[in-house]
Fold this sequence. Notes:
It is a single chain. The chain has 271 residues and is an alpha/beta fold. The chain folds into two domains: 20-189, 3-Layer(aba) Sandwich (Rossmann fold); 210-269, no CATH class. It contains eight helices and nine strands.
Amino acid sequence: MGIAVLRFDFTGLGHSEGEFENTNFTTNVQDLVAASAELARRSMCPSLLIGHSLGGTAVLKAAQEIKTIKNVVTLGAPFSPEHIIRNFTNALPKIMRDGVANVSLGGRPFRISNNFLLDIAKSYLTPAITNLNAALLVLHAPRDATVSINNASEILLTANHPKSFVTLDGADHLLSRAEYAADVIATWAKRYIDLTHPAPLNGAPEGVLRVCEANPNGYLQDVQSGPHHLLADIPAAYGGTNKGLTPYGFLSAGLGACTSMTIRMYARRKG
């Protein structure tokens, strides 16, 4: 479909190198702007920003600096970066005394520095949300124990339209089951992002298909027939991810569709 995606963890998080204690909210926003500039340099200007937790707060702030952004999505995001401090108030004396301390956020260990606290204290997000020149989608779990759902309410009340909210009922803060959220984001974003379907190959005869492996760790296949895009897979019980029809399902669907079309053709001829 011609969609380029860049996913990255902030410094010291996930698969990114470096030390989280040497970062702050401002540097996170700067990383987003720098990543956007690199995509633009490669003629892939971003139009959609998605951020989880404090990353969601960061994309709200960064969006006003990236002029090509049409959509912003937050998942379990704090309304203010300062909200994150409430999760480790017991560690504040040690951070102030030693300059850094280990804390737990969402069940994960982090080293928080005094520089991080000072930067958060001066971060004010309301103008960025109010002046957000993009469609906004807020997703939040009602039972999020790390960032309460009240933050979603504050973001929505501050933002102007177009804005939408979807509850992630039953989800935890880390979105250990993210399939539903991904489907919601994909469906919502289609309204705002122009997707150009690839044209059929010049001179390609009728019935020629292109099948490419989409997941080397499983059996997912990408099936392209002219402008039509499909997925083939096998059930999870047999090692697949069940994201598309099985080869047998495709065969049965073809026979079924042919039969139904033939019946319709004769019904029209016979009036």
